[in-house]
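Most newcomers find our protein records easier to grasp once they have seen one. The structure tokens are whole numbers drawn from a learned vocabulary of backbone shapes. The record below serves as our worked example for the rest of this section.
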Amino acid sequence: MTIKKPENLIEWLRALPKETEWAEFKVNNSKSDSVGKYVSALANSAIYNGEAHGFLVFGIEDGTHNLVGTKVDLASEKVGGESFLHWLNKMLSPSLNIEHCRHEVDGKFVEILRIDPAY
């Protein structure tokens, strides 16, 4: 499944009153081990909270939900010579379906990881 209207998803997530157990906002922190831990936690929290997906979003400030953009580009990041997204999928156990989307809004880039829970 692909994110067909990322701008609608971004606005829906920004409209949340605060971060949730299944939606996390970051600006530029893309350390591979931290992202892996967030993805795993968001997948588990989505199950626990009855949500269809977890979301890790770069380019939105946590407290204000302002769209500030990000310098993170997960599709071009590397870990040990391999693409970050491939590395992430390989390292997670159980395997998770993770969809990546990079979208530009008003000249600012937003990176979205939509994480399907592993049942």
